[in-house]
Specification:
Blueprint: H1 4-21, H2 46-173, H3 180-196, E1 198-201, E2 213-221, E3 228-234, E4 236-239, E5 242-245, E6 247-254
Parallel strand pairs: 2-6
Antiparallel strand pairs: 1-4, 3-6, 4-5
Helix pairs in contact: 2-3
Keywords: Chaperone, Cytoplasm, Stress response
Subunit structure: Homodimer.
Protein name: Protein GrpE
């Protein structure tokens, strides 16, 4: 019969040997949730899951806050850019007004130039109109004066020939004009009458007209009722209604 104590000692040694061969369990600091064997004390409860989620959220929160921290900086940059744009927009009216001021001055200058040019054009047109009117009046006067000049020329020629005509008439009255000279004298008188409308006037027995006759002598006579030409001392000549030389006569006045 074996000794109970010996048996107990052998069991104890076997147990100790088995415990020495088995690896020691990891401590809580070195073990992870995957390596640790499942036990009833390590089961995850709802409260533990909530605490774990809260812990994880709080752990991730700094990174998120860091990312959000960059966003305000970008917002500040955008706000700064907007403020600069706003400032430029506020300053732009002044710039526009500053740029509009020279343009307004130029416009005023251009308007002044247009007004001056319009005035000059109106004056030029008025001067041109006056010149045209003066030219038209000159042409009209020239035409009128041309006829008058021709008339004056004919008058001067006839006045120069009056003495020749007096000699022809004296020779005719004395019956001393005959032959070829009579034909020439007659042709000259006809030509002057046709071209210059020259005619001799004043005969004895005509009524005296002081506008056409020049009375050198006057007598009273019971044979006349009005002043009458008694004798022609020198014949007179006229061109149409214009008297070149008045007839020199002796007049009989009524008693």
């Amino acid at each position: 019969m074996e000794n109970p104590d010996r048996g107990s000692g052998v069991f104890s040694e076997a147990t100790s040997q088995a415990g020495a061969d088995q690896p020691a369990p990891a401590t809580g600091a070195g073990r992870t949730g995957e390596d640790a064997p499942a036990s009833s004390s390590d089961e995850v409860t709802p409260e533990a899951a909530a605490d774990s989620a809260a812990t994880q959220s709080s752990a991730e929160e700094p990174a998120t806050s860091d990312g959000d921290g960059d966003q305000p900086e970008a917002g500040k940059a955008e706000d700064s850019a907007e403020s600069v744009d706003t400032t430029e927009a506020e300053d732009s009216p002044d710039a526009d007004s500053a740029s509009d001021t020279p343009a307004g001055d130029n416009l005023a200058d251009l308007k002044g130039q247009v007004a001056q040019l319009s005035d000059d054009l109106a004056r030029s047109r008025a001067e041109t109109y006056n010149v045209q009117r003066e030219y038209s009046a000159y042409v009209r006067r020239a035409k009128q004066q041309a006829g008058s000049h021709r008339e004056d020329g004919r008058r001067e020629v006839c006045e120069a020939l009056l003495s020749v005509l007096d000699d022809i008439q004296a020779a005719r009255d004395a019956d001393d004009l005959s032959g070829p000279f009579a034909a020439i004298a007659t042709k000259l008188e006809q030509t002057l009458g046709t071209v210059c409308q020259l005619e001799r006037y004043g005969e004895a027995g005509e009524e005296f007209d002081p506008m056409r006759h020049d009375a050198l002598m006057a007598n009273e006579s019971a044979d006349v009722d009005t002043p009458t030409i008694a004798q022609v001392l020198q014949p007179g000549y006229r061109m149409g209604e214009r008297v070149l030389r008045a007839t020199k006569v002796m007049v009989h006045n009524p008693q």
